[in-house]
Amino acid sequence: MRRAGLFGVPRVRPWSWQAFLLGLVIVAVSALLQGICVALGAKLYFAAFVPSLFVLAFVAGAPAAAFAALLTIPLVWWAFIPPFFEFSPLSSANADSINLFCLLAVLLIGLADLCRETMTIISRGGLKPPGKSAATNSQ
After folding, report:
1. pTM confidence score
2. Do you find a cis peptide bond into 83, omega within 30 degrees of 0?
3. What is the pLDDT of residue 12?
4. How far apart are CA 65 and CA 59, in angstroms?
């Protein structure tokens, strides 16, 4: 792991086993938080998973976040959509919730990946000024 330039956030190489293990841990912690929310009466099935995907994509990269998003869908379907702890046919509202989560996951993972790349550029010293380069001809 190496430190990014933003608040000392540790970053993990995107395709490493540590990134995917972090993805599993994030999904487990989010499932615990979602279970607490469901016990308190919340009907938002993906509420705890959406922000954690952004953080995971920023820290561990897009592949681990995509893995976590794909793992989240059957987990939520099985554990949090009634009837609990069984796969049953989805109603149109539940299918719409899953589709909306997929859309938000793609957008948030893309945004976090852009933020991650921006931090990489900044840590290298930023973009070079538009001065003379080998590609320009001064004549």
Report:
1. 0.82
2. yes
3. 87
4. 9
